[in-house]
From TrEMBL:
This is (R)-benzylsuccinyl-CoA dehydrogenase. The lineage of its organism: Bacteria, Bacillati, Actinomycetota, Actinomycetes, Mycobacteriales. InterPro entries: Acyl-CoA_dehydrogenase (IPR050741), Acyl-CoA_Oxase/DH_mid-dom (IPR006091), Acyl-CoA_Oxase/DH_mid-dom_sf (IPR046373), AcylCo_DH-like_C (IPR036250), AcylCo_DH/oxidase_C (IPR009075), AcylCoA_DH/ox_N (IPR013786), AcylCoA_DH/ox_N_sf (IPR037069), AcylCoA_DH/oxidase_NM_dom_sf (IPR009100). Keywords: FAD, Flavoprotein, Oxidoreductase. Homodimer. Its cofactor is FAD. GO terms for biological process: fatty acid beta-oxidation using acyl-CoA dehydrogenase. PANTHER family: ACYL-COA DEHYDROGENASE FAMILY MEMBER 11, MEDIUM-CHAIN SPECIFIC ACYL-COA DEHYDROGENASE, MITOCHONDRIAL-RELATED. Belongs to the acyl-CoA dehydrogenase family. GO terms for molecular function: (R)-benzylsuccinyl-CoA dehydrogenase activity; acyl-CoA dehydrogenase activity; flavin adenine dinucleotide binding. Residues 12-130 form the Acyl-CoA dehydrogenase/oxidase N-terminal domain. Pfam families: Acyl-CoA_dh_1, Acyl-CoA_dh_M, Acyl-CoA_dh_N. Residues 135-211 form the Acyl-CoA oxidase/dehydrogenase middle domain. Residues 247-396 form the Acyl-CoA dehydrogenase/oxidase C-terminal domain. It comes from Gordonia insulae.
Amino acid sequence: MAWDFETDPQYQEQLDWADEFVRSEVEPLDLIWPHEQFTPLDGTRRKAVEPLKEQVRQRGLWATHLGPELGGQGHGQLKLALLNEILGRSSWAPVVFGCQAPDTGNAEIIAHFGTATQKERYLRPLLDGEIFSSYSMTEPQAGADPSRFETRATRDGDGWVVNGWKYFSSNAATSSFLIVMAVTDPDVSVYKGMSMFLVPSDTPGIEIVRNVGLYGEPMNGGSHALIRYHDVRVPDDDLLGGAGQAFAIAQTRLGGGRIHHAMRTIGLAQKALDMMCERALSRVTAGSALSDKQFVQGYIADSYAQLTQFRLLVLYTAWEIDKYQDYQRVRKDIATVKVVMPTVLHDIAWRAMQVHGALGVTNEMPFLTMIHGAGVMGLADGPTEVHKMTVAKQVLRDHTPTDDMWPTQWIPRLAADAREKYAEFLEHEVGNR
Ligand SMILES: Cc1cc2nc3c(=O)[nH]c(=O)nc-3n(C[C@H](O)[C@H](O)[C@H](O)COP(=O)(O)OP(=O)(O)OC[C@H]3O[C@@H](n4cnc5c(N)ncnc54)[C@H](O)[C@@H]3O)c2cc1C
């Protein structure tokens, strides 16, 4: 019997250590440097953050998703899921543990498809936590529909020249390099005609036109760049994988990225549920604690049920990725996780906010940030609607149409077949009456 929902005791000890460490050492960073986690460390922050990273390394929990040859532990996705549930509570924690988005996905594709020189130049410092990276795929006129991508890379001597617009390239302004997707062969479908390039962020011709901010952030003070690539020269050596391979590579990147967001979302939703329960037990109104009111009990029960279903789905999907080592094969469940994630976080954070009354909607509590985060989860790495279509197509693949006028489960015919199958017993039964 191979099904097992227990964590082995040695790893549980590691998780217990991480839980305490994140609460006491890392969550305070969220309050003193709330938007600095993707900015390379300066003198003061380095003094505070570097010793924390060192403790994580000593503990063997640095970049656990990558193999030992890349400086990770090779723990795989399931163990990463259990760890990420803890890290999801804090915006700094993934950086302190060397497993932050978008760098995890970016590191993964360089690890899979990069040459030895590319790994040395880009992957090594990325894994050491010294630099950040940005993934530059979405374009202003085209996000969910890649067939509308226009950024072009044209051949020029022993390299390429990139021209075009990119939008929502997260952390581009603080990155050391960008992974840029561009059309290299306009005569074939984008699925075969786009390529990926590793481009140092200071390459001449890269213009960050605006750093788009999310709701609540100051204008031009955000971290999602609108970029204009003007005649950006890229040598052949910086082509990632082969020409025309961008989509195959993107599937690896986005598969990992989506499930990692989901792992962290479990932690965030659990935090909201914990806050809801604390408030329900503490606040007395109309003669009893909120936890005695049936409406509030309903909020708690619904939240627990939603979170537990989601968590099991995420852990199962992580287990599948480890087992098959093939994101394509696990595509249906990764897309399902992506579809469910925004609703779970939204619903639980909303109920927690409601139970906190007026305090819940203030900037002194994190609920509206979480609800906004749920909206982001419904768009980043592809909109929910598109993932629902993927789920449906994959589910339908396991089914076939019937030529018959009636469905195969039409009861009158099934009953007639059943009567015929057991006719001798029925005759006997009638005879005995
Ligand atoms: C916080 C954040 C960070 C991001 N980071 C990055 C990044 O680092 N790099 C990067 O390249 N991109 C990034 N993105 C962009 C993200 O991948 C795109 O927003 C996403 O792919 C959707 O593209 P779009 O915004 O152009 O929406 P559109 O493609 O215009 O879609 C808009 C809406 O139309 C509907 N829709 C779209 N297609 C369909 C369809 N086929 N069927 C039915 N309905 C549909 C959906 O409701 C969808 O939300 C980020 C986005 C966010 C919000």
